[in-house]
Fold:
Amino acid sequence: MSADSIKVLKNLQFDKSKWLQMPRDIIIGHDAIEQLPDVCRDLRIGRSALIISGRHTMKAAGDRVLDLVGTGGGGAEVFTSETISLETINEAEEIAKGHDFIIGVGGGKAIDMAKVVSYNLGLHFISVPTAASHDGIASSRASVPTEKGAVSLDAHPPSAVIADTGIIAKAPFRLLASGCADIISNRTAILDWELSHRLRGEAISEYAAALSAMTADILLENAGLIKPGSEEAAWIVIKALVSSGVAMSIAGSSRPASGGEHKFSHALDILAPGRGLHGEQCGIGSIMTMYMHGGDWRGIRDSLSAIGAPVTPAKIGIDDDTAVEALLMARKIRPERFTILDAGIERDCAEKLVSMLYRE
Structure:
């Protein structure tokens, strides 16, 4: 007699699902900012915009954005701030409630604020970077500084990215070099992710990891093309930053682009705030963590040097003792994210890692 007729348990079904959010429109090139009205119409996100920017970035691109959006007849308002904090986010949210969508114009702070505000209010936002300093221009993560260090918040990626290479090429070259270092550090972030997968059973997205690694390799292989004032360099770096952001969207976290080198950077933000740029610190951290992984740390160092990014703490005004303390503190930063720095290194090992950076 068959038992099929008396089964009370449901058949198991494959029900793994995932919601991927990525930018719908990505415009990169000379005078790309002039296509902003067309992008707004294509997205059908409304007519009234709140522009979030800083004082200097308003001059670089924000004023032009205001002209372009204002001529659409829907009206636009500007919120400027030189810092991002819970207070400024709340202020921007109150103003944004009267608008249909948000445009973030500037570097990391303006775009991260636009990202958080739009996420909290359920509004679309458009990313208009004025510099290529980090991969947040297209990612779904936002970094907000607090008294205890930077906090990475869930948000959503921009509905569109409009990166004008003419504007970005005019930004201080240090910002572009920092963006390159941030992307190159993806190489060690992937190694940390794979390490956690092997030792802790952490889930890993092979596709996201491969995309992130490929993005880093583009800059490692084309370091000689990254020059000050070059729109070609801006184009290469922006494409890499967008790809890195997409990899994070696929993974559903910042794992493809954030490992021990980022923990080292966040520790430096606490111990020596305002000295180095985020990407610069990640690049230096990546040299050391690649050494710990037994990989080609010299290749990373040489590529960073060719680009013009710093490769020692001294180059960003940080003494070696502080760098050592940052390596030791790293395990306390986001302890749920296992990296090679969480395996436990002693002070003498940390001192050797920092001194290694100065080898010829």
Observations:
- The chain has two domains: 25-171, 174-356.
- The chain has a mean pLDDT of 90.
- The CA atoms of residues 189 and 259 lie 4 Å apart.
- The first strand starts at residue 25 and ends at 29.
